[in-house]
Design goal:
The chain contains 14 helices and nine strands. With 367 residues, it is an alpha+beta fold. The strands form two sheets. The chain has a five-stranded antiparallel beta sheet. Strands 1-4-2-3 form a four-stranded antiparallel beta sheet. Bound molecules: fe (ii) ion.
Length: 367
């Protein structure tokens, strides 16, 4: 039994047994308060199901459980990590279901050359829900997943929808605006289902004629949306305008910056980011760091500079802690991304902190 006054001197913090989990190591004592005395419930152990149930019973009977303040942060960090892990599992489950359904929706569009509005609404609704429910880091894990060997329209469509949704979140858009951005992202390239496959996936360089055909896809997307009953002009215009450039040299309407909606300027950025990190028949994939580097150096000079700033401010932080495949075959964890040198982040490889460089490059995220 401990003296009661210890409890009253702020030396203890409250923990809940309902946050503890099986397999968790408790490096200290856990107490409960009976009348005005602190009593030991358990100490220095790895929690089993039974021990957690016993702690929960004590918490329900006596109000709270306590640990010494000096151990609270360790325990709290473990609890946060476990919650994050469980959250990631839940997200990956939902993401897998979204992918399965979205691939069927796109396949169906390829066959019928028309959009089933109800089904695309379901996909957009579910993607939007994941954006507002899960952490940005989980969403980006899906976007930055190891690129598929073959280009799938549904993958790109989901990724652009997610990036658009994140940008909406970062720009503090309303729920309704985020929903629109997600729908625009999911359907921006749907018009490609009306482009002949041999042109769309041609391994070699395109002829001028073939390029002109490819360039019709935003108009096809726009028309397909009108045909399926889409009435929202902001969605229609942004889908049509996702290849416009801020200096008025884009297509299909050569709109200048002032006439491009923010929705379409956001979609352009999301589209370029995902296209660059994806493999295509005519190009290998770039790492997210290469894309950030090119964005920061203004390689795509006709993007909205304010939106690029937002993207560059938010994206690097979300890449920290991710496991990455390096060009020498090793796997490291990103620990720091220098905003003055996006290309070469600092990584932890087997507990060695290493700055990547021209010879040791980051390729793609590992898992
Ligand atoms: Fe496009």
């Amino acid at each position: 039994m401990l003296p009661t006054n210890l409890l009253n001197t702020d030396l203890y913090s409250i923990v809940s047994a309902f946050d503890l989990f099986e397999g968790m190591t408790i490096p200290c004592e856990i107490f409960y308060k009976q009348n005005s005395d602190l009593k030991l419930a358990l100490k220095n152990t790895t929690l089993s199901k039974i021990s957690i149930i016993n702690l929960q019973k004590l918490e329900m009977s006596y109000g709270s459980l306590y640990v010494r303040n000096c151990y609270f942060e360790v325990i709290d960090n473990e609890i946060k990590k476990e919650k994050d892990r469980k959250n990631l599992v839940a997200f990956l489950n939902i993401y897998s279901n979204i992918k399965t359904f979205a691939s069927k929706v796109i396949d169906n569009t390829l066959q019928t050359k028309s959009i089933n509005k109800a089904n695309t609404d379901i996909v957009s609704f579910n993607i939007k829900n994941t954006i507002v429910t899960f952490s940005d880091s989980h969403i980006l894990k899906a976007v930055n997943e190891k690129p598929a060997d073959y280009y799938y329209l549904y993958n790109h469509s989901i990724h652009v929808a997610m990036l658009n949704g994140l940008m909406g979140k970062w720009l503090k858009y309303s729920d309704e605006q985020i929903s629109k951005l997600v729908r625009i992202g999911f359907l921006h390239d749907i018009g490609k289902t009306r482009i002949p496959e041999q042109i769309l996936n041609k391994p070699g360089p395109l002829t001028d004629y073939e390029f002109q055909i490819i360039k019709t896809h935003p108009v096809h997307s726009y028309e397909m949306l009108i045909e399926c009953g889409e009435k929202d002009t902001e969605i229609l215009e942004a889908v049509r305008g996702h290849h416009e450039k801020t200096n008025g040299t884009g297509y299909p309407d050569r709109l200048p910056y002032e006439k491009m909606s923010e929705y379409s300027r956001i979609t352009t950025i999301s589209d370029i980011y995902d296209a660059m990190i994806s493999k295509r028949v005519y190009k290998s994939s770039n790492s997210p760091f290469e894309v950030l580097d090119e964005f920061s150096r203004g390689k795509f000079s006709n993007l909205d500079p304010h939106l690029i700033d937002v993207f560059l401010q938010r994206m690097p932080g979300e890449l920290i802690g991710k496991r990455i495949l390096l060009s020498d075959g090793r796997v490291g964890t990103v620990v720091f991304v220098n905003p003055r040198e996006y290309l070469y982040p600092i990584v932890n490889i087997d507990d060695n902190i290493i700055k990547t460089n021209e010879k040791l490059r980051c390729l793609s995220f590992f898992d």
